[in-house]
């Protein structure tokens, strides 16, 4: 398992959503596609570096063995994944494509961004997803998402990442993804303009709890997630 350098979040580590999506793809390849998967990031994922993926002993939940997959760089645990269903009602209400475009024009990351070269939301990346979530005013964010030619499960997890992070005050203090549980129901067509939504559910110390959803151009739910973001110590 490798996170190529172009899929960075912070300059020297992988985008959290893309890394989690890569874990999800690895998990599905070995254990089948679950209704939802939860990935916890334990250490900043180094770029262009091969991780060793191991399946650990499976605990039994509700009478079913649930494998836990872990990714290591040497002795350092980078991430772990396990089944965790995402409920049908864990979605962020969408807005129209036109409103998403209007909100995106007010994206605070244009003026103050902790990681301006982020693959998903970095304004300095012409080759990224260029999802610029603007605030709706009720705890939600919204942005257009033009689907790239290389759309994949990993890309959809990435698209579910930063709209939640910008529902928190990223312009005031840097946060990084700590944990995400997501479900991807369908991949949109390359070139389609979708709508990416985020919503702040609450904060607990350095933790911010959010959820995110991606809708097709026709307003159909394509993917949804819940996540926990962690505030970094002041530099």
Give a verbal description of the structure.
By secondary structure, the protein is an alpha+beta fold. It has 2 domains: 5-83, Thiol Ester Dehydrase, Chain A (Roll), CATH 3.10.129; 97-231, Hotdog Thioesterase (Thiol Ester Dehydrase, Chain A), CATH 3.10.129. 15% of the residues lie in helices and 34% in strands. The protein has 4 helices and 12 strands; from the N terminus they run αββββββαββααββββ. The protein has helices spanning 16-31, 97-104, 153-159, 162-165; strands at residues 37-41, 52-56, 60-61, 64-65, 68-73, 76-83, 134-135, 140-146, 175-184, 193-204, 207-215, 221-231. The strands form 2 sheets. It has a 10-stranded antiparallel β-sheet. A hairpin with a 5-residue loop joins strand 11 (207-215) and strand 12. Helix 1 (16-31) runs antiparallel to helix 3 (153-159). The radius of gyration is 17 Å and the shape is globular. The relative contact order is 0.18. The model has no long low-confidence stretch (mean pLDDT 92).
Topology diagram in text:
Elements: H1 16-31, E1 37-41, E2 52-56, E3 60-61, E4 64-65, E5 68-73, E6 76-83, H2 97-104, E7 134-135, E8 140-146, H3 153-159, H4 162-165, E9 175-184, E10 193-204, E11 207-215, E12 221-231
Helix pairs in contact: 1-3
